[in-house]
Amino acid sequence: MKIAGRDAGKQCVVVEILDNSYVTIDGSTRRRKCNIKHLEPMDKVLDIKSGASHADIVKQFDKLGLTLKEKKSKKAAPRPRKQRKVKVKAPVEKKEEKKEAKKAEKEPEKKKKAGEEKDGKKEEVKKEEKKPEPPKPARPIPPKPESTKLEKK
Q1: Which of 12, 15, 45, 133 has fewest C-beta within 10 Å?
Q2: Domain residues of the chain, as ranges?
Q3: Are 12 and 29 in contact (CB under 8 A)?
């Protein structure tokens, strides 16, 4: 019987001796490597071969009248995959209609900007030309020191 860990209190049998302090166990517990200090001997003995399969151990437990709780493994559910976003293409007719509507809106605005009328006279709109500023140096350049040579006498 296992007395420590997650499988504590469950019946098991030593399947194989690994070294002086570790053995492989199986039974109501998971089949795994276990420290001998975590096991408590029982008064019942099973006749099995070294490295016996889980099916052989279940048969031996049934012969002695001991019941094993069988673990029913679940099937792994398919992991939901991230789906790529698909760009929806608008019908061609709608695009053309939008372009025409935008052009129609822009044309009257251009006429107003090109020359505005006041008192029956057209005033010309002057565009201010911006002069590009010279690029600034990344860091200020220190002035060069004058020569500090000592004159010989």
Answers
A1: 133
A2: 12-64
A3: yes
H-assigned helices in the chain: 54-64, 92-114
Is the distance from CB of 20 to CB of 54 less than 8 angstroms? no
**Residue appearing with tokens 């939901």:** 80
pLDDT band at 38 (very low <50, low <70, confident <90, very high): very high
Residue 58 C-alpha from the chain's centroid: 42
Handedness of CA 34, 35, 40, 41 (dihedral sign): positive
Q: Tell me, what's the pLDDT at 52?
A: 86
Please tell me whether residue 32 adopts helix, strand or coil conformation. Answer: strand
Residue 99 has pLDDT above 80, yes or no: no
Is the CB of residue 8 less than 8 Å from the CB of residue 1?
A: no
52 CB neighbour count, 10 Å cutoff: 17
